[in-house]
Prior knowledge:
This protein has three domains: 5-83, Archaeosine Trna-guanine Transglycosylase, Chain: A, domain 4; 125-251, Rossmann fold (3-Layer(aba) Sandwich); 256-482. The protein has 13 helices and 23 strands. The protein has helices spanning 136-149, 172-186, 206-213, 232-247, 277-290, 307-311, 317-336, 347-351, 357-364, 397-406, 435-440, 458-473, 479-482, and strands at residues 5-6, 14-17, 26-29, 32-35, 45-47, 56-59, 62-67, 76-77, 82-83, 109-114, 120-121, 125-130, 158-161, 191-198, 221-225, 253-256, 261-266, 294-297, 373-377, 387-391, 411-416, 428-432, 447-448. The longest helix is centred in the middle third of the chain and has 20 residues, at 317-336. The chain is globular, with a radius of gyration of 24 Å. It starts with a strand and ends in a 15-residue tail after the last helix.
Amino acid sequence: MKTTYLRINPADNVAVAISPLHAGETIEADGRVITLRTDVPAGHKVTLKNFQAGENIIKYGYPIGHVTVDVPEGTWVSEKEIKTNLAGLLDYTYQPVEVHTDIPMEHRTFKGYRRRNGDVGVRNEIWIIPTVGCVNGIVNQLAEGLRRETDGGKGVDAIVAFPHNYGCSQLGEDHENTKKILRDMVLHPNAGAVLVVGLGCENNQPDVFREFIGSYDKDRIRFMVAQKVDDEYEEGMRILRELYAKCCQDERTDVPLSELRVGLKCGGSDGFSGITANPLLGMFSDYLIAQGGTSVLTEVPEMFGAETILMNRCRTTELFNQTVSLINDFKEYFLSHGEPVGENPSPGNKAGGISTLEEKALGCTQKCGKSYVSGVMAYGERLRTKGLNLLSAPGNDLVAATALASSGCHIVLFTTGRGTPFGTFVPTMKISTNSNLAAHKPGWIDFNAGVIVENEPMETTCRRFIDYVIQVASGEPVNNEKKNYREIAIFKNGVTL
């Protein structure tokens, strides 16, 4: 029999419509039969009791806000009747929990590229990175020129330029953020070679930036300053030809799954996100960590309302304190601009069945499973600790995905209920929360998690997903790569000169 609704947790006082429900139909809860008073769209919530104004809505076993009016049982309830319980800065108490995942070591491998410094990449691409937006036209022309000369980049996985708007007229933290993200890209192991192109007069001075990068492979990372050469195109192409010749010699080898690093991301979420795709990513994340690998969760504003779950899974008091700072620093950012901390669901989220930030957060945080938190990172920081890491970055899809890739993630796993074509500078795999989206947008969606509410057990779906991630890590392109949808976005907060 087809499932038409789901009560996610026994404590919940709402259920989620799996398919559209209609007034007059009946559902069951706690041994009672409830007749629906209204139609309920798929992904949206239906009340399982009579609510009085001010009572909390419970979903995922936690409050997701309170109703602002009386709502009878059997009624569609949405953001129109629900208000967040979130407020400003909070004091938190460390209440550590024990974590048991009991996942066996399987000693699986993927085909990756072992770099000279011992790091591993899942792609062997040539990247052209500008230090400043003024040379965006040059880097685009250079990428096009090399692709033309090499039959589309035969012998390497891709030849890509990454234009951006920054690198000059920035001060303070914004300037540092730009430097950090560009440094992280230059050092990323998915690039077999990098040409860094500067102008010469920018704030992000090429010589200073070179020192900021630290130790690097001078055979694979080269610099060109446009103002210092007579013909920037010819000089750039000369360097790129040398880099291309080196990259063509690189070969994939067997690499333990413990070396794989994935970013956990969601965008255009809907009412199915917390039921299908996000729990799937959580199960995968736990599996990968059990194999010795690494996953990274970001989008800090989308943790608001579920942050204590993460805090209590921190391995140490120090990590707990770092997580508290991660959360409260981002709340301070909102409050300093006069913005509320609880107004996060987008129009697409609301249309898909998400009413409050708490509801979004409880769904979003499922992407990181049940493992201990092993590391907490500032924006632009690179991974140092295996296991589950939390990364400071906003909820904006472009900025957050770029931050995940910059931390050292080889692949970004991106769940979506509404769909998006976006990809950052590493493979950006789209996992749909529902089958309708997967059928509607096959050129966007790489894996369909919607089958989980169509009677495929989560464990079976996860097995297929593990195999697919390994295939992608071994070279199988995802849709954003096939279509060359590759962009970067850098977090900006301050003034522009």
